[in-house]
Amino acid sequence: MNSALIPNLDLRQENVALPLGLENNPPAVPGRHTHSLVILDNRELDRQCLAQCMAAQKADLQILAFGSIEEWKQKRDEYPPLSAILLNVGGKKIDEPTVSEQIRKLSSEFASTPLIVLADSDDFGQIVRALEYGAKGFIPASVSVSVCMELIALSVAGGIFVPASALFAMRHLLDSSNSTARPLSGIFTDRQVEVVEALRRGKANKIIAYELNLRESTVKVHVRNIMKKVKATNRTEVVFKLNDLFLSGGSATNSLC
């Protein structure tokens, strides 16, 4: 066989665990790996390729690639302590029932271990939902492997990462505050518009009451009425729907009523 046709496959195999179907699944190397990172992805080829690339970037962290968290649990004693979980959802939407439930379940069960979502999209709404469901970071697939590893390290250190695009989207929402009354005038009263703007800025009822010179009980009534008008079940959902309204320039007014 012509050796020139065989690519160089120096992929640091000892640093990667590729479970299920591989009989030579490598155990942890004593004294080399102090912690491990679990990649969860039900697409075997994708998770193996990602694990190999990450292993080449982080020699002191054992990279484990599994189809589900249950598969990892079966072999967890063979590996170093878990440092972080990277959930690769690919092109799926965060608010798909299976994805949202998986994020909630993992973030609840592994409360002391950061769960980071890796996704093809960097949509602002999807990012916020992932964080609401319990993720400690959101990494778009557009970043390089080295940047991805640095962002995971940030989450392990206690930080929360979101793409810059999310910050730009938030700035757009805040800049639109001067024209709040225009897209909302057909939905809310003038006082409710003021409460809506405060909700979008994440202010608590006590603060809203103080700034608008209202009783806190009155603010609660306004919030309940606003929730009914946008068909929301909680304050977070109110903000999501209002943000969608502002991003659409008011075109979603009819769908909220």
Strand order of the largest sheet: 1-3-2-4-5-6
Rough outline: elongated
What is the CA-based Rg, rounded?
23 Å
Which stretches are poorly predicted, pLDDT < 50 over at least 5 residues?
1-30, 250-255
Q: How is the main sheet built? A: 6 strands, parallel
Average pLDDT, rounded to a whole number, is 79
Question: Structural class, judged by helices and strands?
Answer: alpha/beta
Number of helices: 12
Beta fraction? 5-15%
Structural summary, described in words:
The chain is built from twelve helices and six strands. The protein has helices at residues 44-55, 69-75, 97-109, 124-132, 145-156, 164-175, 181-184, 190-200, 205-212, 216-229, 235-247, 253-256, and strands at 16-17, 35-40, 61-66, 82-90, 115-119, 137-140. Helix 8 (190-200) packs across helix 10 (216-229) and helix 9 (205-212) crosses helix 10 (216-229). 46% of the residues lie in helices and 12% in strands. The protein has a six-stranded parallel β-sheet, sandwiched between helices. It is an alpha/beta fold and 257 residues long.
Characteristic terms for this protein:
alpha/beta; 12 helices; disordered C terminus
Q: How does the SSE layout of this entry go?
A:
Blueprint (H helix, E strand, L loop, with lengths): L15 E2 L17 E6 L3 H12 L5 E6 L2 H7 L6 E9 L6 H13 L5 E5 L4 H9 L4 E4 L4 H12 L7 H12 L5 H4 L5 H11 L4 H8 L3 H14 L5 H13 L5 H4 L1
Parallel strand pairs: 1-3, 2-3, 2-4, 4-5, 5-6
Short description:
Helix content is 46%, strand content 12%. It is built from twelve helices and six strands.
